[in-house]
Amino acid sequence: MNHYEAKDVEKILGVSNNTLYHWYKTRRLIIPVVEETKGKASKFSIQNLIDLAIIQRLFAFGFTFDLIKRILKKGENYV
Questions:
Q1: What is the rounded distance in angstroms from the CA atom of residue 54 to the CA atom of residue 1?
Q2: What is the dihedral of CA 37, 41, 43, 44, to 10 degrees?
Q3: Torsion from C-alpha of 31, 37, 40, 46, nearest 10 degrees
Q4: Torsion angle defined by CA atoms of residues 36, 38, 39 and 45, in that order, rounded to the nearest 10 degrees
Q5: What string of pLDDT tens digits covers the 79 residues of the chain?
Q6: Cβ neighbours around 59 below 10 Å, total
Q7: In sequence order, what DSSP letters do the residues of the chain get, joined into one string?
Q8: CA atoms lying within 13 Å on the CB side of residue 65
């Protein structure tokens, strides 16, 4: 299974490290498959990348953090 670090996410989706950190540490919009620990970077799955792409689009359409969180939570029921 492939895992991606923040630098990979930035290259693939254009989500900056600061934005990514805010979305998963502060807002908890996504949960990395491997959370960061001392000296180890967080790792993101392909599903995390898909969720991040969805989050980007929803923000572009003006959705709020709370609404995006509810949409993602509801989507978990369908996977």
A1: 21
A2: 110
A3: -10
A4: -20
A5: 689 999 999 999 999 999 999 999 899 999 898 876 666 788 999 999 999 999 999 999 999 999 998 888 876 654 4
A6: 14
A7: ---B-HHHHHHHH---HHHHHIIIIIS-S---SB--BTTB--BB-HHHHHHHHHHHHHHHTT--HHHHHHHHHHHHTT-
A8: 9
